[in-house]
Design goal:
- It holds the Pfam family TPR_27.
- Helix 2 crosses helix 4 and helix 5 crosses helix 6.
- By secondary structure, the protein is an all-alpha fold.
- It has 6 helices and no strands.
- It has 2 domains: 61 residues, no CATH class; 67 residues, no CATH class.
Protein backbone atom coordinates (compact mmCIF):
# COMPACT_ATOMS: atom_id res chain seq x y z
CA UNK A 1 0.00 0.00 0.00
CA UNK A 2 2.83 2.38 0.88
CA UNK A 3 4.64 1.39 -2.32
CA UNK A 4 1.63 2.13 -4.50
CA UNK A 5 0.98 5.51 -2.84
CA UNK A 6 4.66 6.43 -3.25
CA UNK A 7 4.69 5.33 -6.89
CA UNK A 8 1.74 7.63 -7.64
CA UNK A 9 3.74 10.59 -6.30
CA UNK A 10 2.31 11.04 -2.80
CA UNK A 11 5.05 13.03 -0.99
CA UNK A 12 4.33 11.73 2.52
CA UNK A 13 4.21 8.13 1.31
CA UNK A 14 7.54 8.62 -0.48
CA UNK A 15 9.08 10.02 2.69
CA UNK A 16 7.70 7.23 4.89
CA UNK A 17 8.76 4.57 2.38
CA UNK A 18 12.23 6.10 2.15
CA UNK A 19 12.70 6.04 5.93
CA UNK A 20 11.28 2.52 6.18
CA UNK A 21 13.67 1.22 3.52
CA UNK A 22 16.65 2.95 5.13
CA UNK A 23 15.88 1.29 8.46
CA UNK A 24 16.19 -2.16 6.88
CA UNK A 25 19.22 -4.06 8.09
CA UNK A 26 18.50 -7.36 6.35
CA UNK A 27 18.35 -6.24 2.71
CA UNK A 28 21.07 -4.04 1.25
CA UNK A 29 19.22 -3.66 -2.08
CA UNK A 30 16.20 -2.19 -0.29
CA UNK A 31 18.49 0.14 1.66
CA UNK A 32 20.03 1.32 -1.62
CA UNK A 33 16.54 1.92 -3.00
CA UNK A 34 15.82 4.03 0.09
CA UNK A 35 19.03 6.01 -0.46
CA UNK A 36 18.01 6.64 -4.08
CA UNK A 37 14.52 7.79 -3.03
CA UNK A 38 16.02 10.10 -0.40
CA UNK A 39 18.27 11.71 -3.00
CA UNK A 40 15.28 12.24 -5.31
CA UNK A 41 13.24 13.82 -2.50
CA UNK A 42 16.20 16.01 -1.58
CA UNK A 43 16.71 17.11 -5.19
CA UNK A 44 13.00 17.91 -5.55
CA UNK A 45 12.97 19.87 -2.29
CA UNK A 46 10.28 17.57 -0.86
CA UNK A 47 12.04 16.38 2.30
CA UNK A 48 10.75 19.10 4.62
CA UNK A 49 7.15 18.73 3.44
CA UNK A 50 7.26 14.94 3.68
CA UNK A 51 8.74 15.06 7.16
CA UNK A 52 6.26 17.63 8.43
CA UNK A 53 3.20 15.91 7.03
CA UNK A 54 4.40 12.46 8.14
CA UNK A 55 4.87 13.84 11.65
CA UNK A 56 1.32 15.24 11.58
CA UNK A 57 -0.17 11.98 10.39
CA UNK A 58 1.67 9.78 12.89
CA UNK A 59 1.19 11.97 15.94
CA UNK A 60 -2.35 13.20 15.34
CA UNK A 61 -3.95 10.14 13.76
CA UNK A 62 -2.46 7.45 15.99
CA UNK A 63 -1.08 9.09 19.15
CA UNK A 64 0.63 6.55 21.36
CA UNK A 65 -0.08 3.67 18.97
CA UNK A 66 2.87 3.90 16.59
CA UNK A 67 5.82 1.68 17.54
CA UNK A 68 9.06 2.89 15.97
CA UNK A 69 12.23 0.81 15.86
CA UNK A 70 15.32 1.75 17.80
CA UNK A 71 18.31 3.09 15.90
CA UNK A 72 21.26 0.75 16.23
CA UNK A 73 24.82 1.00 14.91
CA UNK A 74 23.94 -1.04 11.81
CA UNK A 75 21.46 1.68 10.76
CA UNK A 76 24.25 4.23 10.26
CA UNK A 77 24.69 4.95 6.57
CA UNK A 78 27.81 7.11 6.55
CA UNK A 79 30.89 4.94 6.62
CA UNK A 80 33.44 7.32 5.13
CA UNK A 81 36.59 7.53 7.27
CA UNK A 82 37.17 11.06 5.94
CA UNK A 83 33.74 12.41 6.90
CA UNK A 84 34.08 14.87 9.79
CA UNK A 85 30.43 14.53 10.83
CA UNK A 86 30.15 10.71 10.73
CA UNK A 87 28.75 9.30 13.94
CA UNK A 88 27.70 12.67 15.37
CA UNK A 89 24.09 12.76 14.15
CA UNK A 90 22.54 11.33 17.35
CA UNK A 91 24.30 14.10 19.31
CA UNK A 92 23.10 16.77 16.88
CA UNK A 93 19.56 15.40 17.08
CA UNK A 94 19.61 15.44 20.91
CA UNK A 95 21.00 18.98 20.91
CA UNK A 96 18.25 20.19 18.54
CA UNK A 97 15.56 18.37 20.54
CA UNK A 98 16.68 19.91 23.84
CA UNK A 99 16.89 23.35 22.20
CA UNK A 100 13.31 22.93 20.94
CA UNK A 101 12.14 22.11 24.46
CA UNK A 102 13.61 25.44 25.60
CA UNK A 103 12.15 27.31 22.58
CA UNK A 104 15.68 28.22 21.51
CA UNK A 105 16.59 29.39 18.02
CA UNK A 106 19.15 26.55 17.92
CA UNK A 107 16.31 24.06 17.50
CA UNK A 108 15.85 24.92 13.84
CA UNK A 109 17.74 23.73 10.81
CA UNK A 110 18.23 20.05 11.47
CA UNK A 111 21.14 18.72 9.45
CA UNK A 112 20.51 20.69 6.25
CA UNK A 113 23.85 22.47 6.63
CA UNK A 114 25.85 19.22 6.59
CA UNK A 115 27.38 18.48 3.18
CA UNK A 116 27.47 14.67 3.61
CA UNK A 117 24.13 13.33 2.34
CA UNK A 118 24.58 10.07 4.23
CA UNK A 119 25.02 11.96 7.52
CA UNK A 120 21.89 13.98 6.71
CA UNK A 121 20.08 10.67 6.21
CA UNK A 122 21.40 9.43 9.56
CA UNK A 123 20.01 12.60 11.18
CA UNK A 124 16.65 12.21 9.45
CA UNK A 125 16.44 8.59 10.58
CA UNK A 126 16.96 9.76 14.17
CA UNK A 127 14.17 12.30 13.73
CA UNK A 128 11.88 9.75 12.03
CA UNK A 129 12.08 7.10 14.75
CA UNK A 130 11.46 9.78 17.37
CA UNK A 131 8.39 11.27 15.64
CA UNK A 132 5.60 9.92 17.83
Amino acid sequence: MLNSAASTGHAVAKYALTMTLLLRTDDNDEKQKGLELYRKLDAAGSLAEGKTRCFSILTMSWPGEVQMPRIEEQHTLCSSPRCSTRGHMPLLYDYRRRAAERNSVHAFGGAAHIPCIQCRIDYDLQAFVNLP
